[in-house]
Write a structure and sequence with these properties.
alpha/beta; seven-stranded mixed beta sheet
């Protein structure tokens, strides 16, 4: 399928996501925390990456705060300043200074001492625009998470990738490209999907 079809899906699902009211967003993000408590992977995790929501994404902030209460070190993605298309993950705490990146998304101010190598993360919770019944994930189109996850896709070591999405972001089938990294787990406010 063509890239225009992927873009049409992005436009459609982003519209669904943006139509969620702020009250519903709060409810869904709290339901996400309850769902996260059921994840065996999270009960063993020491270092996890999450994200700060933008553009109607499922808000992970309540989950981040719950992880802090559990003593789980939490990291956020930062666009790499020198390696184009790559992500770094920086420690995120309540006092971490945040700045807007080129996409107007908040991220921790770059501090080399706060960087966690991807290999040291237990779980990378990824945002996504859409997902299908086979675990395919459609992102915003920059490929940042696909590049980050590619080295770990077929390995038994390294971080586990778990997608986070609203239930309304599911579609029956997504057009895929060779660089797309499918996810074995996606969590929505109402369900944990496994493949």
């Amino acid at each position: 399928m063509s890239l225009s079809t992927r873009q049409q899906i992005r436009t459609l699902i982003r519209g669904r996501r943006q139509a969620i009211s702020s009250d519903q967003q709060i409810r869904y993000s709290n339901e996400l925390v309850e769902r996260a408590k059921q994840l065996p992977e999270l009960s063993r995790a020491k270092k996890i990456a999450l994200y700060l929501a933008t553009d109607g994404e499922l808000d992970a902030q309540p989950m981040i705060e719950w992880c802090w209460q559990q003593g789980i070190d939490t990291y956020l993605p930062v666009i790499h300043p020198f390696s184009k298309g790559q992500l770094l993950f920086l420690r995120y705490a309540p006092t971490t200074p945040l700045v807007h990146n080129q996409y107007k998304i908040l991220e921790p101010r770059l501090d080399k001492q706060m960087i966690c190598p991807v290999a040291d993360l237990d779980i990378i919770f990824t945002p996504l625009v859409a997902f299908d019944e086979q675990g395919q994930r459609l992102g915003m189109g920059g490929g940042y998470y696909d590049r980050t996850l590619a080295p770990w896709e077929s390995k038994s070591i390294g971080p586990i990738a778990i997608g986070l999405a609203h239930d309304c972001q599911q579609v029956s089938a997504l057009p895929t490209e060779s660089w797309d990294i499918p996810l074995s787990t996606i969590m929505t406010p109402s369900k944990i999907w496994r493949w």
